[in-house]
Design brief:
The structure holds three protein chains of three kinds.
Chain A (H helix, E strand, L loop, with lengths): L2 H4 L1 H18 L4 H29 L3 E8 L4 E7 L1 H28 L5 H20 L3 H19 L6 H32 L4 H6 L5 H19 L8 H7 L2 H24 L7 H23 L4 H28 L3 H36 L10 H4 L1 H14 L7 H18 L7 H28 L6 H5 L5 H19 L1 H14 L9 E2 L3 E3 L7 E2 L1 H18 L6 E3 L16 H4 L1 H6 L1 H4 L2 E7 L9 E7 L3 H21 L7 H20 L3
Antiparallel strand pairs in A: 1-2, 3-4, 4-5, 7-8
Chain B lengths: L1 H21 L3 H25 L4 H28 L11 H19 L8 H23 L3 H21 L6 H29 L13
Chain C lengths: L4 H33 L9 H11 L3 E3 L4 H18 L17 H19 L5 H32 L4 H11 L5 H17 L18 H4 L5 H26 L10 H28 L8 H20 L1
Classes of the chains: A mainly alpha, B mainly alpha, C mainly alpha.
């Protein structure tokens, strides 16, 4: 290892700290403040990604210390394992363009007085995510985890005048701390058995009893599931994403979610020895549930950023489904099959970050130009914002899993893993795999519906509001990051072998996996031994492009007559267009038992009841989890809390008496054991 | 080849049960029952030929006469007379019912592996299908409201029992078989008349209205 | 992996060209048979070609509100359909571009075309386009799991998802006549009906506002644009039927390039497609179009059949 790699990670964190300090000092001057915050962030992200690339290329972890205090013996070490490196690369690929995007975006979207806070928070968030990825012992990990949560909450509550922002931040904090509490408990249990809080020692612990391992698994699952946005722990996500400024919500969707995924990998799947079949089934089930419900809820949204947030839940589900399939294979001892499933899942982490980052940035531009997040007020933006529209459609096609773009390879590989899983397990359990396949197929197809709707209603036809008619294209510095991500969507879609090749080292480093050769040149993919299929998307791309160009040239006509759209004899107005609500109405009706939609139609009668002067339509879907899972839970906690109020007497002497009683009990309990 | 015909017929019976769950027209449901019984007769005939058990020809003939011709004709006449041609909205909607039936099929197959005779490939499928049919028939009875559909569901259950008896065991004693057949026709007659009475009394054959009878 | 670029290119061109040439005939044949069943004369057999030629010569008329998406839609749809043909074996037991991928790539490519057309339908601002796109995408989405499960059943039985390898395997081993094939076939047949917009799911002949699905989506197209949409739909239909034929009964398919074998293969393929066309015609003529909200019931039956096919084969 050359010198710069060894100090790369601490250097990146130092750059972030300096940036934060500089941002705070320049708080009074928003313009340089924005540039410093973004520049420093981009530099640090790029640096850590470069280190990560070196780690993956060398296939070896690098270690070092972040903080060393000789006198007290406190030392926070870090290890960049190939797995961490993969997540760091994903972070770098998205965080650098987002940092550039932030410069003009912050100028517009955030009040000058809060620029410093936004810029510093952005850096603290990214720094803590990096620290989470590289921490190699529990205290550092939990500290970084906590800083990450707090900085995100601060950014979500940036516009704290708005009640919704405050509530979103509060909900996020509560959910995160429930998760963090689970993590703390799990680390303490594991640490007390290992006698150390260092991860390598903790993972090496053997001889845990079955029920203890199950408990640990559930604690880790809840702890990381909250961050990963898995249903039913997802309720913070669709609230927090829209509330935060778009550059932050992009990071939350593309990067913050991956910390949960990383945790599931490191601790649930590969930290507790060979997984049980029941765990794998549980993860597959959660993945399927999150994927299906995520996309179904996304379909019903009219808030563009909420829609994207729900779609993040969906993709998180797909990632976890792949991981679950991998754990299942590992539980049955199929190490090569497990590696295919894990590769599919890790590849989707990257692909999701790229296309969701792109979509969020596009949504940010659209929201900035229109001043609203409601897609019913957009329309016709393709004329006013041609570049944003072009990039957005690339992202929309990628997320719909269409070939030639990067959503396809990872979903393809997931399907392969599911099929291979079916052939290599026995009994009724194997039926999970085709069921998961069917669920994944439905999810993908529904997400295509969702994004045809999101793109079509936003960018096509006539403007539906005066703001949309006056919208203007974003500045160049906001378009370039989108261009870069769109290019990556196409590049990773045509050359999936490149990313998959990089993954081989990561997979080889995970315990119990045997890397199968899955690439066939940069453009090709197969699923290794026992493979069902191999794809070369580029080959189809050539065929499709040839056909497209030939068709285009053959049907080119010199003169095209332009007429107005036929509107059944009336004039075409934005009111006669199909709305986003109408577009998803058939699916709402079909899945009515999931949505439980409610609608109110108020007709203001005119002279005749058949010709109402005004019709008001209000529709909403029932927030099932909030109402039936969390509301009873909250009531229970409140009731317990009011019961505890008896203890709170308000008298100092009573409190001192509590301390005395506790001391006596503890002494008796501890003194009894030799 | 024999094995394939048997599995095919058994699968066909299961499909007919699925279709019965999947649609609401009463006539179609009755015809589907006819098809199902016919497939049962084919199963009996095939086994009679391949294992040279001539007594099964009688079973097959009886099945055709009773369950393919007589019972469907009688039920159709009943439906015609009372003039109700469609099942009303069941307790569970159709796609959900079908998903439940898929689950029941899995359960049926899972259980069938536990039987002694389940080791033979064909028997495994016959038992699996028969158990699934049994469960689906019961499920139909639980979720549907029209008396006719419930009779059909009962008959489906009976078909499933027959399928196991014919296909897996060495066969029931002939007397028992005859007895069951007459029991079935008697049951259908009684139920048919009962349906007529229910319609007369309540002007509907929605059996969930029977709950009004209790004081 | 790709045998010889020049040969592959030539073959792919020939293959796609052949499918393009044959597709309008299938549509007309079905129309003709349907007419005969209703005691009408029906169009001449070459009507499909006449229609396309007429449309291609017309002046394109486009909406003022439409953008480049509206122009790109039919072209991407057409290109995707043409590219998809090169993944499916038709007369020979291999496909020109089978190295590019198998079943999943095929399904994905067709989804790409559908995505483009549905997006383009939203571009004119006409409420019909939105309505058609919404319904078409909804039905396609609901058909997807059954389609995948049905194809999985075949793929798992053959141990491969690559269509060329799959068909060669079938030819080598001979048809198994396993009952699960029949169930999977029935399930997939329903899906093909849904995907090609036939009764009882959609009515290709209607232009009544409330009942049309696919036609509503392409209502704003005219001239060459419409020709592309119609042609690509025909190719898609032929492709689906070919897929059914070759996945389940690849009898007579040519394994060598001898004249006799090719002729036999051509006749066998044509005959089998004709039989399926008769089945489609009968299904269209004897059923009434389902209400939109009854379609999920039909599709769930098909999902059930596909699942049963898997269960019977592998449990």
């Amino acid at each position: 290892m050359t010198g710069w790699v060894a100090i790369g990670v601490p250097a990146a964190l130092t750059i972030r700290l300096i940036t934060v300090a500089a941002t705070a000092l320049l708080a009074g001057r928003p313009r340089p403040c924005r540039w410093i915050a973004s520049g420093g962030s981009a530099l640090a992200s790029a640096l850590s990604a470069m280190v990560a690339l070196q780690v993956i290329a060398a296939g070896r972890s690098i270690e070092g210390f972040l903080f060393l205090h000789g006198a007290s013996g406190i030392a926070f070490g870090y290890t960049v394992t190939p797995l961490s490196a993969w997540f760091l690369i994903v972070l770098g690929i998205v965080a650098v363009p987002v940092a550039l995007y932030s410069v003009p975006y912050l100028a517009h979207a955030v009040a000058p007085s809060r620029t410093a806070l936004a810029g510093a928070g952005f850096n603290v968030l990214l720094g803590s995510v990096e620290a989470v990825f590289v921490a190699n012992e529990a205290v550092a990990f939990l500290c970084a985890w906590e800083v990450m949560t707090l900085s995100t909450a601060a950014l979500v509550a940036l516009e704290h005048e708005q009640r919704s922002s405050r509530q979103a931040a509060y909900l996020y904090l509560v959910m995160s701390h429930v998760g963090a509490g689970c993590l703390l408990a799990a680390f303490l249990i594991l640490g007390s058995h290992a006698g150390s809080l260092s991860f390598p020692v903790m993972f090496a612990v053997t001889g845990l009893s079955g029920s203890l391992r199950d408990t640990l698994f559930v604690l880790f699952l809840v702890g990381f599931g909250v961050k990963a946005g898995l249903i039913p722990f997802h309720i913070w996500l669709p609230e927090a994403h829209p509330a935060a400024p778009t550059n932050v919500s992009t990071l939350m969707s593309a990067v913050l979610i991956t910390t949960g995924i990383y945790g599931l990998y490191r601790f649930c799947a590969f930290g507790l020895g060979v997984p049980d079949q029941a765990w794998a089934l549980g993860l597959m089930g959660l993945g399927m549930l999150s994927a299906l419900l995520g996309v179904l809820y996304a379909l019903a949204q009219t808030d563009l950023k909420r829609l994207l947030a729900y779609s993040t839940i969906e993709n998180s589900g797909i990632i976890v489904l792949g991981l679950g399939a991998g754990m299942m294979a590992r539980a049955h001892g199929h190490s090569t099959l497990a590696s295919v499933a894990v590769a599919a899942s890790l590849l989707h982490v990257l692909n999701h970050a790229v296309f969701k980052g792109l979509l969020f940035l596009g949504a940010g531009s659209v929201v900035m130009a229109n001043g609203t997040r409601n897609i019913e007020h957009y329309g016709g933006l393709l004329r006013r914002m041609p570049w944003t529209g072009l990039f957005f459609i690339a992202g929309a096609m990628a997320i719909s899993g269409l070939p030639l773009l990067n959503g396809f390879p990872s979903e393809w590989l997931t399907f392969q893993a599911l099929l291979m899983g079916f052939t290599s397990t026995a009994g009724v359990v194997r039926l999970n795999f085709p069921l998961a396949g069917a669920a994944l197929a439905l999810t993908t197809a529904l997400s295509a519906v969702c994004f045809v709707r999101a793109f079509g209603i936003t960018f096509l036809a006539l403007p539906r509001s005066p703001q949309a008619a006056r919208a203007h294209e974003s500045p160049l510095l906001m378009l370039l990051p989108q261009a870069w991500l769109a290019l990556l969507c196409v590049g990773l879609g045509l050359f999936p072998g490149v990313a998959l090749g990089a993954l081989e080292g990561v997979i080889a480093s995970l315990p119990g996996l045997q890397s199968a050769p899955m690439t066939a040149g940069p453009g090709g993919m197969s699923s290794g031994i026992g493979s069902f299929d191999a794809v070369i998307p580029g080959l189809l791309g050539v065929a499709a492009l040839t056909a497209f160009l030939a068709t285009f040239l053959a049907t080119r006509r010199g003169v095209v007559r332009r007429v107005s759209t036929w509107a059944c004899g009336g004039t075409l107005t934005p009111q006669t267009e199909y709305t986003a609500t109408a577009f998803s109405k058939p699916l709402l009706m079909i899945f009515t038992s999931i949505y439980r939609p409610r609608r109110e139609v108020d007709a203001l009668a005119g002279a005749s009841p058949y010709f109402p002067q005004e019709v008001r339509y209000r529709a909403e879907i029932e927030p099932t989890f909030e109402r039936y899972v969390y509301a009873p839970l909250v009531r229970l906690v409140l009731r317990a809390a009011s019961g505890m109020r008896v203890l709170q007497a308000g008298s100092l002497h009573t409190y001192l008496a509590y301390v005395l009683v506790l001391a006596v009990i503890l002494l008796m309990w501890l003194g009894g054991t030799p | 080849m024999t094995g394939n015909i048997l599995i095919l017929c058994a699968a066909g019976m299961l499909v007919s049960a699925y279709l019965m769950v999947g649609q609401k027209a009463l006539f179609t449901a009755i015809r589907l029952y006819g098809v199902q019984s016919f497939l049962l007769a084919v199963v009996a005939t095939t086994i009679a030929i391949s294992e040279s058990r001539p007594e099964l020809f009688v079973t097959a003939a009886l099945t055709v006469v009773l369950k393919v011709v007589l019972i469907p004709w009688f039920l159709m006449r009943t439906v015609d007379r009372i003039g109700i041609h469609r099942e009303i909205e069941p307790f569970l909607n159709v796609p959900a019912s079908l998903l439940v039936c898929l689950g029941l099929t899995v359960v049926g197959y899972r259980v069938s592996t536990g039987f002694q005779a389940g080791d033979r490939d064909v028997s495994h499928h016959l038992i699996g299908v028969a158990l699934s049919l049994l469960l689906i028939g019961m499920f139909l009875m639980v979720t549907r409201k029209k008396a006719i559909t419930q009779i059909l569901a009962l008959l489906t259950v009976e078909n499933s029992v027959f399928l196991v008896a014919v296909g897996v065991t060495t066969g029931m004693p002939f007397v028992v078989e005859l007895g069951i057949s007459f029991d079935v026709i008697l049951a259908v007659l009684v139920l048919g008349i009962l349906v007529g009475r229910i319609v007369d009394r309540f002007e509907s054959m929605d059996v969930s209205r029977l709950s009004k009878l209790k004081g | 992996m790709i045998p010889d670029p020049l040969f592959t290119t030539a073959w792919a061109l020939l293959h796609a060209g052949g499918m393009l040439a044959a597709a309008p005939l299938l549509k007309t044949v079905i129309k003709k048979m349907k007419a005969r069943l209703q005691n009408r004369q029906g169009p001449p057999l070459l009507q499909g070609y006449y229609d396309l030629a007429k449309l291609l010569q017309k002046e394109p008329v486009r909406s003022e509100t439409a953008s480049w998406v509206f122009v790109a839609g039919p072209r991407v749809y057409f290109a995707a359909a043409v590219a998809a043909t090169t993944l499916v074996p038709v007369l020979f037991a291999s496909a020109p571009l089978e190295a590019a991928g198998g079943i999943l790539l095929l399904v994905g490519t067709l989804a790409l075309g559908r995505f483009a057309l549905a997006t383009a339908a939203l571009d004119t601002g006409s409420p019909f386009g939105g309505m058609g796109a919404s319904r078409d995408m909804t039905i396609a989405a609901l058909a997807e799991p059954a389609l995948m499960l049905g194809l999985f059943a075949s793929a798992l039985a053959a141990g491969t998802m690559n269509l060329g390898v799959l068909v060669r395997g079938l030819v080598e081993r001979g048809p198994a006549w396993h009952p699960s094939d029949l169930l999977a076939f029935a399930g997939l047949f329903v899906i093909v009906i849904a995907e090609t917009g036939r009764i009882p799911v959609d009515n290709p002949a209607t232009h009544l506002e409330l009942t049309m699905i696919h036609e509503a989506m392409v209502l704003e197209y005219s001239g060459p644009d419409l020709a592309l949409v119609e042609w690509a739909s025909a190719v898609k239909e032929l492709l689906y039927l070919t897929l059914l034929v070759n996945l389940f009964m690849p009898i007579g398919i040519a394994t060598s390039v001898e004249a006799g074998a090719v002729l036999t293969s051509l006749l066998a393929w044509g005959g089998k497609i004709f039989v399926l066309a008769v089945a489609v015609t009968v299904a269209e003529s004897t059923n009434a179009k389902l209400r939109l909200f009854r379609v999920p019931e039909l599709l769930s039956v098909s999902l059930g059949l596909a699942f049963l096919a898997l269960a019977i084969r592998f449990l």
